[in-house]
Design a protein that fits this description.
The protein is α/β, with parallel strands linked by helices. Helices cover 38% and strands 14% of the residues. The chain has a 5-stranded mixed sheet with strand order 2-1-3-4-5. Strand 1, helix 4 and strand 2 form a beta-alpha-beta unit. The longest helix has 12 residues.
């Protein structure tokens, strides 16, 4: 899953200061911050052109079951998808009241960016009924226990 939030940035900085392993801490932070672009790049390997693809983007906060978006990697990924021309519909139960089934309806790509408890009731069968068999799922939290970050529903 995404590792983010205000403490991560602060703690990584503090951890890096008194140690001789600054380069390891800085490298880990750089890799972590690059995850949103890495995921979009891997989506692009499967879907060559993201322009006008309908994306259901679930979760904006930096960790589950909170309403805090500070330093959220989900927000970074959302912006990258928008810049690629995606038609993005967003759901987060802690930020605004929207019907998740309406967000998911006929989505080409579904991104589970935050593992809110509200999403644990969405099974692959329910998801397939809402989005179809050919939709690509980005499950960074392994919600569906497939041990795959990217997979097509019918695969």
């Amino acid at each position: 899953g995404f590792a983010a939030g205000p403490c991560l940035a602060k703690d990584a900085f503090l951890l890096g200061e008194p140690t001789k392993f600054k380069s390891i801490v800085a490298g880990a932070n750089k890799i972590n911050m690059g995850l949103p672009q890495y995921l979009v790049n891997n989506i692009l390997k499967r879907i060559k052109n993201l322009s006008n693809q309908k994306v259901a983007f679930l979760g904006l906060t930096f960790k589950k079951n909170i309403d805090d978006t500070r330093e959220s990697l989900a927000l970074a990924m959302l912006e990258i998808l928008k810049n690629e021309g995606c038609n993005v519909k967003v759901h987060d139960p802690y930020l605004f009241n929207k019907d998740v089934s309406k967000i998911l309806k006929n989505a080409d790509i579904v991104v589970f960016a935050t593992d809110h408890n509200e999403y644990s009731g969405i099974t692959l069968k329910k998801l397939e009924k809402m989005v179809g068999k050919k939709s690509l799922v980005c499950d960074v939290w392994n919600i569906f226990k497939k041990d795959m970050v990217l997979f097509q529903i019918n695969a």
